[in-house]
Write a structure and sequence with these properties.
Blueprint lengths: L2 H27 L3 H11 L5 H4 L5 H8 L2 H18 L3 H33 L4 H10 L5 H10 L4 H31 L7 H29 L6 H17 L7 H13 L1 H7 L11 H24 L8 H28 L4 H9 L5 H7 L1 H7 L9 H47 L1
Length: 433
């Protein structure tokens, strides 16, 4: 066996072990596993340990990046399906209206305020500034969903966080590409984005939910058969592919979420379709199996975020801009989380959880490379070569910074929950006495 293969085996085993113990640490001490795994990725990167031991050189990382889009899509489909399995349909319906309002308000404010700041302080063209604001405007479902599932908050709040991350991850991709097309071609079709997105979401959701409902009958026939859970993964990818195929071209992310939602809510579906016989066999095996797959994909996803982080092109200017944008994000999320607290049936802990869930993810990192690819190749006069490093580095700083801030706020929120539970227990003891 070659030395590189041995090193790769050791690295993979180490990453999985660290991911497992990071998950245990979160369970016990409420320190999010994402933080430890991102720092592990930075440590294994080409500029530190990875480069020294020829594990991840810049050339090998470039080879890995060729499959980045496939990796991103696979990770998101599996994680969204896992998130759908754990959502209660009644809870989702109750939180849908408030979640959509708060999500769109937060995203719009972040895009506009970041764009205005870049326009005034860096003299960046307003259209290009809007592109940057859009790239860092959305939370990442691959980060938010696994953390939200483990937090001790109400199911309605978890559903809101899931919906926010799903909606914004799709919105930022579509809007960013539309804005760049508008810059290059003068295309005004971006103004029709809301209607097109609503149709894509509706079609993707309908495909996923209908497929999930029909798949329940397949699972019923395959009850107690070997590999029945594995074939559900095959069905998931087929559904995601059908949702994106021409001429449908809807959202595979929403389809995956709704596919999982239908399978995870077998009880509700049986009650609503009394003329149909659905055996209520336990869904625990499916959920446990996909939790294992989700853990594996999620662990390498977080480590990859650390791998793409580079120190060599950073300067103080990038750091200041990144910290300024993080400050804008924190301010806006605090305001909208308090607004959700006032408008919805939420308590203070729920508002704190909404405030904390600000991490950006791989979608932002992928989009950060697109302005250079699309605008510089077209000879766009608004584009400057210095923008390539600036946008990429600032986005990576925002990804890492929002993750650190979110981790601190999650620990703080969980400690407040412990304190509230302790005080409630003491109050009950006094009442009994």
């Amino acid at each position: 066996m070659e030395a590189q293969t041995i090193t790769a085996f050791l690295a993979v085993g180490t990453i999985i072990f660290v991911g497992f113990f990071a998950n245990l640490i979160f369970t016990k001490y409420r320190v999010p596993d994402i933080l430890l795994l991102i720092f592990l990725g930075i440590l294994l990167g080409p500029e530190l340990v990875g480069g020294s031991f020829h594990l991840f050189t810049k050339s090998s990382l470039a080879d890995v990046n060729q499959y980045r889009d496939l990796f991103l899509s696979t990770a998101l489909v599996l994680i969204l399906f896992d998130g759908g399995l754990s959502l209660d349909l009644h809870t989702l319906m109750r939180s849908m209206k408030l979640a959509t309002f708060i999500t769109l308000l937060t995203l719009l404010c972040e895009i506009l305020l970041v764009a205005v700041a870049l326009y005034f302080f860096l003299n960046m063209d307003i259209m290009l500034a809007l592109v940057v604001g859009t790239i860092i405007g959305g939370t990442s479902e691959a980060v938010v969903i696994p953390i939200a599932r483990k937090m001790r908050i109400r199911e309605e709040t978890k559903a809101m966080l899931v919906m926010e991350s799903v909606i914004t991850d799709v919105l930022v991709i579509v809007i960013a590409i539309a804005l760049m097309s508008a810059i290059v071609m003068g295309d005004v079709s971006m103004f029709f984005i809301p209607g097109e997105l609503a149709i894509d979401f509706a079609i993707g959701g309908a495909i996923g939910f209908a497929a999930g409902f029909l798949w329940l009958f397949v699972l019923q026939k395959l009850h107690n058969q070997p590999l029945s859970y594995m074939i559900t993964v095959a069905a998931l990818f087929l559904v995601a592919g059908v949702a994106e195929i021409s001429p449908i071209e809807s959202s595979s992310a929403v389809a995956a979420l709704m596919f999982g939602l239908a399978i995870g809510n077998r009880k509700h579906l049986k009650r609503w379709t009394t003329s149909v016989t659905l055996r209520l066999s336990s869904d625990e095996h499916i959920q446990e199996f996909h939790a294992e797959i989700s853990f594996f994909v999620r662990t390498f996803f977080y480590v990859y975020l650390g791998l793409v982080f580079s120190f060599s092109t950073f300067d103080v200017k990038h750091l200041i801009i990144g910290l300024g944008i993080i400050g804008i994000i924190i301010t806006i999320r605090r305001g909208t989380s308090l607004l959700a607290w006032k408008l919805g049936d939420l308590d203070k802990t729920d508002a704190d959880a909404l405030f904390a869930m600000m991490p950006r993810g791989l979608a932002a990192a992928v989009l950060a490379t697109m302005p250079y690819a699309l605008l510089s190749s077209q000879g766009e006069p608004l584009w400057q070569e210095s923008y390539a490093e600036l946008i990429l580095n600032v986005v990576l700083i925002v990804i890492l910074g929002t993750t650190i801030v979110a981790s601190i706020l999650i620990i703080w929120t969980e400690r407040n929950i412990d304190r509230a539970n302790h005080e409630e227990s003491r109050a009950k003891m006094y009442q009994e006495d």
